[in-house]
Amino acid sequence: MDVYRLADEVAAGLDGLEVPLRVAVTGRVANGPGEAREADLGVASGNGKGQIFVKGQVVRTVPESRIVETLIEEAQRLAERIK
Hints:
Organism: Streptomyces malaysiense
Pfam families: GcpE_C
Distance between the termini: 33 Å
Number of domains: 1
Shape: globular
GO biological process, one term: isopentenyl diphosphate biosynthetic process, methylerythritol 4-phosphate pathway
Helix content: 40-55%
Keywords: Iron, Iron-sulfur, Metal-binding
CATH topology: Sulfite Reductase Hemoprotein, domain 1
Order of helices and strands: HEHEEEH
Low-confidence stretches: none
Structural class: alpha+beta
CATH architecture: 2-Layer Sandwich
Protein name: IspG C-terminal domain-containing protein
CATH superfamily: Sulfite Reductase Hemoprotein, domain 1
Radius of gyration: 11 Å
Strand order of the largest sheet: 1-2-3-4
């Protein structure tokens, strides 16, 4: 998946979220984890899958087709904990 398209889809899915979160969407498994760990929520994608990070920890690896859905679910969980 194109990282720009992925970022746009994630941004659209998080539109209206009332809690500020730093979200990192990276398209490389090689250096993406470092960037994703620095954010509240992140994904390092590549090779047809994405590693999902929450507060610097990998919480799961999902197929490319589920990255956006999973990031939105995790963002909502984080938002509930922050409220």
